[in-house]
Amino acid sequence: MITLDPAEPGPLYLQIATRLRSAIATGALSSGARLPSARTLSAQLGVARGTVDAAYDLLAGEGAIEPRGAAGTIISVQVNDLAKAPAQRTLGLARSRPAAPTAPLPFQRGLPALDAFPRKLWSALTAKAARAIAEADLAYPDVCGAIALREEIVAYLGLARGIACAPHQVFVTPGYQGALTLVRQVLLRPGDAVWVEDPGHPQAFQAMEVGGASLVPVPVDAEGMRVTAGIAAAPRAKLAVVTPTHQSPLGVSLSLPRRLALLAWAEEARAWVLEDDYDSEFRYTGPTPPSLKALDRGERVLFAGSFSKTLFPGLRLGYLVVPDALIETMTRAARLITRGAPLLEQSVTAAFMAGGHFARHVKRMRGLYKRRRAALAAALSDHFPVELAAGGMHLLIRLPEGVDDSDVARRALAAGLAPMALSGLSIAHHPGHGLMLGFTNIREDDAAGLVARLVEVVGA
User: Fold this and answer.
1) I want to staple 385 with a disulfide (CB 3.0 to 4.6 A). Which of 208, 276, 369, 398 is the partner?
2) The whole model's pTM is what?
């Protein structure tokens, strides 16, 4: 009764588990019925035995089946009520089921190329990690993160970003938002002044404001954050939040003189700098500038990274590298706030990195993004001024005089497109009207048609 669809998204072991659940719910498999062995079923379906093992393990954990050693695996006695009224129960499940996730909208920012992610490899690593779970792994995880993943992050940052750190300085967080929460809870008190780039990232604005911080909008120009303007506005600020490698949203890089000036200010003022290194892996022209953390001699920089841009955002894993002076207080905060990230996802990510897959995946995506960016920029250039940064995952177009970018973004969304208005990302320093367009999920052959749709929206 089981057939697998290779085109269906998600790992094969989830397909097997889903079809067995459905058979139980409809009464096709009744309580006490014996299932074929994993070896037999894998041969029938043409999949690895480990795939069937992972499906059986999942169903056993849910209580749907009962492994009985040499006697085989049977449908649990607890599922009798599922077979009594299959029609009504199936209908009730259908009514309560949430809407299925949809594909990313064209031009949506902040997403890697989901169509190019190695899902089969990831699924195989997930099944292997699931089978390797020991009894001790079922307890509360390390609040700082799995040591295997922290060691891989340390090795990666040393090679890719020139950062010398140790595993005890790394905190695995629930994405960048988790890192922001830790930083806010440990470093800030209500009323503390915080420098933020203007225009900048709304997520950083909101994360600081929710803790009662006083935002100091610092203007950005072609060399990044204007450090002298920040010093003039709030010389005793407690924290500066910056995206120095690829400024969000303008795409400029913080120049070396300004990096050194920022670090000098932080050391003199006893302030902290949060470096958001969100997509430094994707640079298409010129060398990647050194990270602030690599230049930091005064131990004032906290370095935040995320796997949302390099792997996929559904993973919900990021990391924060902190100076030694903050480790104790950060650990206490992590124990109270997050209680640690899920171990399985951390184990799979560590295995992905240890096997060299992460480095190869990033290299492939860098080439793919460069091609997709070029195709979109070529299609756009006939209609709009296009601003291309040295790296990143989006590009910026400027709109004709008198055209409101917020209005265009709203109408574009109604038309099934998802550009982001530039003007809505500023606090005090208006950056002009423009649209940020994500290109990572736009295939080269689709670029011209999508640009034509955008031109219609702007023209209207």
Assistant:
1) 398
2) 0.77
